[in-house]
Amino acid sequence: MTNDKKNRTRWQWLLAPVMLAGLLWTAVGCEELTFDLGGPTTSISGPETGTPTTRDGDVLIASFNIQVFGTSKAGKPEVMDVLAKTLRRFDVVAIQEIRSKDQSVLGQLVDLVNEDGHRYEYVIGPRLGRTVSKEQYAYVYDATRIELVPDSTYTIPDRNDRLHREPFVARFRTIGAEGGAPFTFTLVNVHTDPDEVDEEVDVLDDAYRFVLRTDPSEDDVIVLGDLNADESKFGELAGIPNATWAVSGMPTNTRRTKTYDNLVFDGAATDEYTGRWGVLDLEAEFGLTRDEAIAVSDHLPVWAAFTATESPTRLAGAPAGAN
Question: Is residue 190 part of a domain?
Answer without folding.
Answer: yes
